[in-house]
Design the sequence.
């Protein structure tokens, strides 16, 4: 019997034209850096927006999702939040991510009101929300009681019959993994959720959950949500692709917008990722740590300046380049973006038009600037340790 060759995906065919090894800045045109640009008011899918399966499930989500943590922050009015959500839907985004850890319960309440007011069909959008716990909360741990009560409370706040994906935010070392997976299986069997996943779990914890699910015949997790940007790459590029290939766990990323403005010595404004600088607790010597910190800050500013210059040559801003760079990596099935205004969301979505122009040459130039491509450490032979 003859085997038929697989058909290439049409989603990536448009990118083949830009795979030369040479940098090409001849078509440097603006991607919407003007804040006064006209925003579409009619429902038209944004050029470059694609729909992918989340993990190895049948759930199709847009490759760009909307993170609601900045939308429902105290500085954003209800009218403005509604305008952002309507723009997202009009642009083709079908996934909304909620997190009690960042915006409290307000996000679920406000989103539920907007959905009811807009009259969107339940089949047209995907809701992901988190079961969060911390040592500062009275509701500690991931016990069966806390999981079920949290899901029921979220459903009541959202005014929805079910949640598409429930993410367990941070693992609980004090709770047996069997109890967690059995509780999530119960939530799904009751129809309160369609799928479940994890957020900020280590690969070891994800594999332990999967093993317990197989052992006790429970529904397995389909996605891990984790930070990913130019300065945070190891987990996303080395370990999560392995999780996808082995057990079908997909990757939902956040991070390109988790950057803050830093002031360089020259007075220039540069984008520096939060958390990129070491804290004093990471070194035994305070003086040594201060020296290392100064060197690291200097290196980060140099890299950020070079990335900013490259973005200027490509006709976009640094954040747009960061978004396109993240989406260029195959393991990213959905990238979460946030916004505090419709204009900001529109500017971020323009980064999708940059994807075909990120040729092999441009990607190699970014790698040359960053010099932080993660490499898996070589295996250690047990015989050599004897």
Sequence:
């Amino acid at each position: 019997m003859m085997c038929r060759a697989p058909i290439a995906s049409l989603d990536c065919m448009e990118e083949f034209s830009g795979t030369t090894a040479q940098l090409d800045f001849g078509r440097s045109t603006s991607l919407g850096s003007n804040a006064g640009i006209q925003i579409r008011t009619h429902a038209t899918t944004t050029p470059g927006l694609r729909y992918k399966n989340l993990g190895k499930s049948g759930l199709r989500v847009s490759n760009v999702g909307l993170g609601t943590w900045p939308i429902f922050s105290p500085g954003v009015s209800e009218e403005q939040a509604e305008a952002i959500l309507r723009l997202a839907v009009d642009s083709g985004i079908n996934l909304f991510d909620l997190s009690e850890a960042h915006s409290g319960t307000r996000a679920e309440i406000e989103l539920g009101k907007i959905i009811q007011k807009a009259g969107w069909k339940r089949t047209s959008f995907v809701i992901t929300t988190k079961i969060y716990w911390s040592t500062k909360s009275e509701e500690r741990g991931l016990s069966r009681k806390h999981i079920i009560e949290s899901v029921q409370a979220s459903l009541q706040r959202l005014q929805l019959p079910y949640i598409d994906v429930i993410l367990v935010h941070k693992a609980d070392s004090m709770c047996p993994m069997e109890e967690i997976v059995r509780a999530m299986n119960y939530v799904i069997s009751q129809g309160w959720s369609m799928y479940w996943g994890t957020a900020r779990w280590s690969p070891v914890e994800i594999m332990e959950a999967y093993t317990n699910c197989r052992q006790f015949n429970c529904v397995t997790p389909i996605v891990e949500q984790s930070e990913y940007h130019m300065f945070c790459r190891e987990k996303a590029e080395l370990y999560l692709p392995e999780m996808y290939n082995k057990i079908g766990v997909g990757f939902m990323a956040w991070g390109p917008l988790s950057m803050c403005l830093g002031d360089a010595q020259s007075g220039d404004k540069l984008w520096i990722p939060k958390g990129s600088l070491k804290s004093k607790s990471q070194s035994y010597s305070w003086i040594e740590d201060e020296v290392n910190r100064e060197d690291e800050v200097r290196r980060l500013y140099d890299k950020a300046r070079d990335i900013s210059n490259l973005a200027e040559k490509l006709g976009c801003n640094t954040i747009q380049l960061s978004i396109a760079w993240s989406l260029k990596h195959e393991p990213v099935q959905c990238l979460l973006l946030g916004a505090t205004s419709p204009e900001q969301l529109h500017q971020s979505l323009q980064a999708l038009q940059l994807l075909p122009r990120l040729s092999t040459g441009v990607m190699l130039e970014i790698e040359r600037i960053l010099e932080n491509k993660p490499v898996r450490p070589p295996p250690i032979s047990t015989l050599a340790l004897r």
